[in-house]
Amino acid sequence: QAGATGLYATAKVSDVQCNTAEYIMRAVGIALWVDSEQQMDIVTAISGSGPAYFFLFMEALQAAGETLGLTPETARLLTLQTAFGATKMALGSDEDCATLRQRVTSPGGTTEQALNAFESGDLRRLVQQAVDAAARRSQELAHLLGEEKQ
After folding, report:
1. Rounded distance, CA 80 to CA 86, Å?
2. For the whole model, what pTM was predicted?
C-alpha cells in the first residue's frame, strides 16, 4: 500500500461514485483529488513515472559506491536503507523536503560537498525537464486514446 493515485471527477460524477473510486484506490495507497483533468498528466509524471526516477537515482548511487570500492551487495543495501530512511523521515515529518535536506546537511561537510556537485550539474533543471517530458507524453497518449475512441 505504497502507491499514490490522483483522482479527478467532473460535476456529473456523484458523491457516491467519487467516494467509491477513492475507496478502491486507497487499497493501494494514498488517493488525492486534483482540480482539473489536465492535472492528471502531472500526477502521471510525478507518481506514475516517479518510481523509475527514484530507481535511476538509486541505481546511480549504488554504482558510485561500487566504483569507489564497495561490493555490489553492500552498495545496494546501503542505498536501499538510505532511501527507506529518508522516506520514513519525510513521511514522519510536517517539514518540507528542503528543510529536511538542510537539517541533514552539515556546513562544510561531506553532504554539502555532494549537494554542491548536484547543484553545479543543474540537477533541479534536469528533474524539471524529465517531469515536463513525462507530462507532455501523458497528454499525447491521452489525445491518441481519445482519437481511438472516436
Report:
1. 10
2. 0.89
Q: What is the pLDDT of residue 98?
A: 98
Measured CA to CA, the distance from residue 30 to residue 22 in angstroms comes to: 9
User: For 60-94, what is each residue's pLDDT tens digit?
Assistant: 999 999 999 999 999 999 999 999 999 999 999 99
Whole-number percent of the chain with pLDDT over 90: 93
- CA dist., res. 148 & res. 150, Å (int): 5
Q: Which three cell numbers stand for residue 15?
A: 458523491
Percent helix, strand, coil in the chain (nearest 5)?
A: 70, 5, 25
Question: Measured between alpha carbons, how far is 18 from 128 in angstroms, rounded to an integer?
Answer: 31
Is 3 within 8 Å of 47 (Cβ atoms)?
yes
**Count of residues for the chain?**
150
DSSP state of 47: I
87-99 tens-digit pLDDT: 999 999 999 999 9
What the chain holds in terms of domains, given with CATH numbers, is: 1-33 (no CATH), 50-130 (1.10.3730.10)
Give dist(CA 108, CA 116) in Å, integer: 11
